[in-house]
Amino acid sequence: MRVLAAMSGGVDSSVAAARAVDAGHDVVGVHLALSTAPGALRSGSRGCCSREDASDARRVADVLGIPFYVWDFADRFKDDVIDEFVGAYAAGETPNPCLTCNEKIKFAALAQKAVALGFDALATGHYARLTDGELRRAVDEDKDQSYVLAVLTAEQLGRAMFPIGDTPKGEIRAEAARRGLAVAEKPDSHDICFIPTGDTRAFLGARIGIRPGAVVDADTGDRLADHEGVHGFTIGQRKGLGIEAPAADGRPRYVTDIDPASGTVTVGSAEHLDVWSITAHRAVWTSGEAPDGPVDAMVQVRAHGGLAPARATPVTRDGESMIEIALAEPLTGVARGQAAVLYAPDPRHGDLVLGSGRIATTDSDPATGVPRLRASAGADR
């Protein structure tokens, strides 16, 4: 097959490209330039898409003996990922830009260009597995990225390759060293790639501006503090609330609700964070078809945690495919804008991704949940 290997300049995508070559494919490497003003160097493990990263990817391609190109996707990345990220925070949501990048850049814009140029598949360094077109968790649970890939359609998965998903990260680094790849010990990128400083609040404030509002108590409705914009808060947040006096009961407060229309941020005790049901929109079923009725599943609501048994029901409202999710036990820190990813409930096949949706609304009433589906299933991971 003709395979386009997306090469970020890191160790994972480098080994993925090498394995595609070893498998006998006709491989071409491509580095995506996603910044309109890339820096010369990375800031350690923060950020990506620097000129250093492009050079690292090129050197790996030279070692592998494959053609290499840099494609400029900066404008598309700004429109589809950065602007959506800023807009979601302004609307009181907590988006995951990696989900959006996979959905709209890597496996949409890039994949479409690859197909137009005659490539059969797109290989990336994601930690996930594909078995007969079915998306599954990676062998390395700590590095598993199936959560941020669950937005992909069956058609997109059919053109994807994840060559390293069957290998723990430590072995990937060792393999890179054996192959003589200079990126073997390069630090992993973390945080949000387009905010290399790590200061998300400052990044958002510079783009959204000051939108004053109040921090109020969930129980009494008392005004506890003022703030400069709901973009500085997320559900479950404990620190940085601007509250001077402790709660009357001495217990910590958490953000429990965000109303972007009024600018109100509500805070309360940990008990106020319990969520028993979720409605998700932008539904995607990785098989290509929604189930005929309710299905039992394990639902994950954060990239690294928030896992519980649930019953998921596909619904259509105003022409949009949605998922209603009733939990068998409460989850906390469930934020609008994050993904609710459904995994098979059977322990023998619990690594299988069934589908996903973006969290639109939640309900804290226990009556909206369902009886425990499995005695030992589910807990925040």
UniProtKB/TrEMBL annotation:
Residues 357-381 are annotated as: Disordered. ATP binds at A6, M7, S8, G9, G10, V11, D12, S13, L32, G125. This is tRNA-specific 2-thiouridylase MnmA. The record marks H126, Q338 as: Interaction with tRNA. Pfam families: tRNA_Me_trans, tRNA_Me_trans_C, tRNA_Me_trans_M. Transmembrane segments: none annotated. It is an enzyme of class 2 (transferase). It catalyses: S-sulfanyl-L-cysteinyl-[protein] + uridine(34) in tRNA + AH2 + ATP = 2-thiouridine(34) in tRNA + L-cysteinyl-[protein] + A + AMP + diphosphate + H(+). PANTHER family: MITOCHONDRIAL TRNA-SPECIFIC 2-THIOURIDYLASE 1 (PTHR11933:SF5), TRNA 5-METHYLAMINOMETHYL-2-THIOURIDYLATE -METHYLTRANSFERASE (PTHR11933). Its EC number is 2.8.1.13. Belongs to the MnmA/TRMU family. Residues 277-359 form the tRNA-specific 2-thiouridylase MnmA-like C-terminal domain. GO terms for molecular function: tRNA-uridine 2-sulfurtransferase activity. It is found in: Cytoplasm. It comes from Gordonia sesuvii.
